[in-house]
């Protein structure tokens, strides 16, 4: 037994047949015998010559030798079939892809809508803050940077101007653009900021798309702009760019643009290659505007024949298309900030702005600022909305519209009766807004209030009449920015840019 010691006087005769030939050789040569014990107990025999003569062997006091064993790493080899290895690799790849998509989705949800939305309860009063007349021709587009520190305008005069938002608060006597870029060629149709305010993409009617880097400088120095990338489209195959947006999709920084001949392209600015390319069926009309889903799962395009067509961004396949009953031109298209399957479309005529459910093709909500009967296909009013701004506004979305009637309207979608005209011509009459249901569509109609003549209206007024502060030509675009308070910026066909609060 382990740990038991026998007296030294006890002799241990060898068991018959225990010592084999190899053991005898070991005794003769003086080598220790092999032990059969797996416990590592060694009982060495005497190496004296008496052992060879067959005399009694005096055994020494037994000792216990404990052999410390070190467990070496397992040397087992696992044989796995090729299909199982490929399956494990595929599972790991899908896990990494799912994690990247989840991170990208969180980035998109945080960055899609503005970093500085209007505060809850914001109602602009229509006070003119700045009147900017630097462009020499129609202003086509206004874009505000993500930080709201600057905004940019582009015009048919071939220039792009960048403005400092903080200078629009009325605290300075002169308000001028901080940068003008004119080495573009052709009329600048649209532009958009990329990755905050660090890059600016510009598209011209000569088929060029240029990406510029903006280097901010400390005041009073102006920022610097330098070209980074550019591409030229084939005028016969693609045509010029009509609309352009930028979005981040995790590993890609995509500049999406649509051309007049039906090309929808996602340009990956990091790899300088196309992330995707779609081809629109021109039988549905020419592309006039498009919008991308907040999760970048699908996009919707509006056409000159009143068609709204949806594309699946994941499989790059057309999903469905729905048309306006009057086949009127779609001027502007936006995604609804709350309902993920809805789009907001500004339609030619009657100042109509409708919200469509693209899953069912139903017109769910309509803003109607016209004297014509709501949802009628007749167009006694030729006025149309050219610029739309939409904000979720803490769960109560608001909508700003402006167009050919030179009026800026504030639409409260949660409480339509609170809608009003922010700014317009001096002859603008007072209006009221009423909600009704027509053929399953909720309609908010603008109705002019009847003006009653009184004795005070016939008497002459003292003092000069106030000059109209509104636009004198078609308002082409509208946007908002936030500094110490909320501001509205509008642009018109005569090259005027106005800032309101």
Automatic annotation (TrEMBL):
Q: Single Gene Ontology BP term?
A: late endosome to vacuole transport
Identify the stretch(es) annotated as Disordered.
Answer: 1-42
Molecular function, one GO term: protein serine/threonine kinase activity
Q: Where is there biased composition of kind Polar residues?
A: 1-27
Cellular-component GO terms for this entry? late endosome; nucleus-vacuole junction; phosphatidylinositol 3-kinase complex, class III, type I; phosphatidylinositol 3-kinase complex, class III, type II
Q: Which InterPro entries match?
A: Vps15-like (IPR045162), WD40/YVTN_repeat-like_dom_sf (IPR015943), WD40_PAC1 (IPR020472), WD40_repeat_CS (IPR019775), WD40_repeat_dom_sf (IPR036322), WD40_rpt (IPR001680)
Provide the residue intervals of the WD repeats: 132-164, 468-501
Record's keyword terms, sorted: Nucleotide-binding, Repeat, WD repeat
Q: Name one Pfam family in it.
A: WD40
Q: Which named protein is this?
A: Phosphoinositide 3-kinase regulatory subunit 4
């Amino acid at each position: 037994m382990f740990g038991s010691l026998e007296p030294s006087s006890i002799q241990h005769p060898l068991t018959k047949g225990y010592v084999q030939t190899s053991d005898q050789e070991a005794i003769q040569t003086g080598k220790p015998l092999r032990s059969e014990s797996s416990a590592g107990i060694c009982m060495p025999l005497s190496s004296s010559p008496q052992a060879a003569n067959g005399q009694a062997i005096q055994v020494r006091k037994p000792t216990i030798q404990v052999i410390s064993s070190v467990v070496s790493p397992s040397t087992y080899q696992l044989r796995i079939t090729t299909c199982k290895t490929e399956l494990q690799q595929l599972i790991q790849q899908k896990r990494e892809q799912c994690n990247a998509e989840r991170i990208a989705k969180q980035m998109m949800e945080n960055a899609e809508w503005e970093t500085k939305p209007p505060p809850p309860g914001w109602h602009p009063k229509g006070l003119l803050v700045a009147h900017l007349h630097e462009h020499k021709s129609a202003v086509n587009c206004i874009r505000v940077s993500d930080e709201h520190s600057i905004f940019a305008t582009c015009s048919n005069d071939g220039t792009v101007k960048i403005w400092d938002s903080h200078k629009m608060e009325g605290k300075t006597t002169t308000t001028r653009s901080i940068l003008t870029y004119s080495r573009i060629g052709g009329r600048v149709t649209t532009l958009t900021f990329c990755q905050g305010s660090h890059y600016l993409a510009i598209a011209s009617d000569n088929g060029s798309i240029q990406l510029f880097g903006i280097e901010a400088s400390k005041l009073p120095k102006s920022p610097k702009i330098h070209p980074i990338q550019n591409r030229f489209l084939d005028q016969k195959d693609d045509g010029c760019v009509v609309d352009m947006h930028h979005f981040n999709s995790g590993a890609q920084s995509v500049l999406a643009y649509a051309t007049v001949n039906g090309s929808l392209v996602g340009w990956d600015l990091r790899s300088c290659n196309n992330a995707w390319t779609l081809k629109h069926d021109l039988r549905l009309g020419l592309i006039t505007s498009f919008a991308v889903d907040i999760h970048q799962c699908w996009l919707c395009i509006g056409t000159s024949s009143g068609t709204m067509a949806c594309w699946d961004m994941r499989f790059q396949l057309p999903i469905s298309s729905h048309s306006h009953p009057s086949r009127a031109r779609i001027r502007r298209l936006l995604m609804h900030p709350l309902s993920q399957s809805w789009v907001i479309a500004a339609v030619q005529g009657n100042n109509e702005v409708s919200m469509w459910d693209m899953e069912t093709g139903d017109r769910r909500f309509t803003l109607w600022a016209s004297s014509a009967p709501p949802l009628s296909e007749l167009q006694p009013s030729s006025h149309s909305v050219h610029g739309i701004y939409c904000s979720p506004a803490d769960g109560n979305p608001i909508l700003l519209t402006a167009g050919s009637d030179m009026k800026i309207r504030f639409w409260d979608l949660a409480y339509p009766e609170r809608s009003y005209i922010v700014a317009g011509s001096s002859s603008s009459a007072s209006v009221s807004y009423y909600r009704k249901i027509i053929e399953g569509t909720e309609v908010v109609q603008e109705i002019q209030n009847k003006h009653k003549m009184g004795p005070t209206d016939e008497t002459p007024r003292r003092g000069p009449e106030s000059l109209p502060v509104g636009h004198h030509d078609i308002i082409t675009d509208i946007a908002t920015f936030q500094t110490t308070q909320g501001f509205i910026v509008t642009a018109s066909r005569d090259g005027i840019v106005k800032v309101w609060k």
